[in-house]
Amino acid sequence: MPVSDPAPLYLGIDVGGTDVKLGLVDGECRIVDSDRTATSTLKTPQNVFQHAVEFVGNRPIAAVGLAVPGVLDTRAYVLREVVNLEGWLGVPLRDELARITRLPSIVVNDANAAAYAEHALRSLGGQSLALVTLGTGVGCGMVVGGDPHGGDHGCAGELGHIAIDFSAEALPCTCGSRGHLETYAGASGVIARMIAASGEDAGAITPLKIASRAERGDVICQNVISETAVYVGRAIGMMGQVADPAVVLLGGAMTFGGSETKTGLQFLEQIRHSVKETTLVQVGGNMKIEFATLGNQAGMIGAAMVARDLL
Ligand SMILES: [Zn+2]
Questions:
Q1: Mind listing the domains of the chain with CATH numbers?
Q2: Cβ burial, residue 198 (10 Å; 0-12/13-18/19+)
Q3: What DSSP element (H or E) covers 162?
Q4: Which residues are in the CB-under-5-Å shell of ion ligand 1?
Q5: Mean pLDDT across the stretch 119-131?
Q6: What is the pLDDT of residues 235-286, one digit of tens each?
Q7: Which of 76, 115, 200, 285 could form a disulfide with 131 if both were Cys (CB 3.0 to 4.6 A apart)?
């Protein structure tokens, strides 16, 4: 009996400041095998790619995708700006990846890779999707018309630095500008608003505690979360008017419990309301806003799926 070729596998590499995640992913977004190693152990791009070659061994791989943080020049596949990754700036990443792995190679921004994974999982075809990540900062990856969208300067979807407060009291942002979403809806922004509203000691407050207290009925915490939803909704509304994506997903550590809790679900509902309030009915009324589902494996899966589809 003839033996048919095994289904092709794709290698996804997700490099972050803390760890390097490797995943062998099949054509249906399923992880077949994975590995996680501290970035401080591997350090350079060359070491990471060599480690990936050893991880793969003699398993047949069709293509490899690399997800990196920071500002990626998507013509030269070179990082122009990145924090916490020494030795990665200015390196021709795609060429090095291809040289060491001897595989068809592609490089993508990690936020866009994560968005691409959620897009592939939902089989959205030519539709657009944005994945908004709420955490220490506010990030956003975009898939426009079925392709990851990095923008001409590697900065597309920088939702954290969209201005949502234009008043004289607008707060200064870490980037040097003022009134940006991240200052209000990033972790320290939420904590600062909680301190202002409650007069409590800064050391005791974390976003997780705000979420659990809100779940138990604490009105001040509930109000801080509602306010956060209004800010996030305004920014999503602006993005909606520009890019008009079919789906917007919320991920990251700051979803106040996400789909698991009443507080998280209410946060989502308030964001939907805020988006509808600030957009045309054809945009806000049709945009599906949900929680993301892939968590911190999304970058790795997305890198592999970009390699599957774009090479
Ligand atoms: Zn900013």
A1: 9-117+296-310 (3.30.420.40), 125-292 (3.30.420.40)
A2: middle
A3: none
A4: 161, 173, 175, 177, 180
A5: 96
A6: 999 999 999 999 999 999 999 999 999 999 999 999 999 999 999 999 999 9
A7: 115
